[in-house]
Amino acid sequence: AATSIGEANQDADYERRREELETARDEETEAMKANGQYEEAPWYWPFGGGPTQPLETDRQIDALDKAYASLEAERERAEEAEDSGWWPF
Hints:
- Helix content is about 65%, strand content about 5%.
- It has about 90 residues and is mostly helical.
């Protein structure tokens, strides 16, 4: 099946925005470390530590992922409707 240019643009926009947010998250984490709002993991527990408050970029990444998941679900519903065998009118 052919992919529309609109879908390709939406996919590329999602990937670009996701990369931007991940870069912003790294910058936000570094700023928190500089301000003392980040706890380092102890040597005996590598999964501990982290920011002392939720990151804004994490919230934005979650919202972006949810929006993209709903877009993919909408695409699947549209594809199933096309393949249902009934005329669309």
